[in-house]
Specification:
The protein has 90 residues and is of the alpha+beta class. The protein is 33% helix and 30% strand.
Length: 90
Amino acid sequence: MINIDWNTRFEKIFKKWTKKYPELINTFEERLDLFVQEPFNPKLKTHPLTGNMKDYWSLSITYDHRLIFVFKENRTIAVLVDIGTHDEVY
């Protein structure tokens, strides 16, 4: 099981995202619940990023929407960093 950390920056991004994509809130909550229970479930497509984002990880909310995060404390905490479409977060 993983603990989730929502920092102030992410909360602001998430608030804007929920206004832009209200239809995806339930999907986000379902994916986050799954992530907490099983971070590497194949449905999430959890993977490390490369290049200038090499310290970050990504999981899929939908085909085009991603959640970006950082693992802390030996992968027991995930700090949420960004959320948006593929083009918005990369």
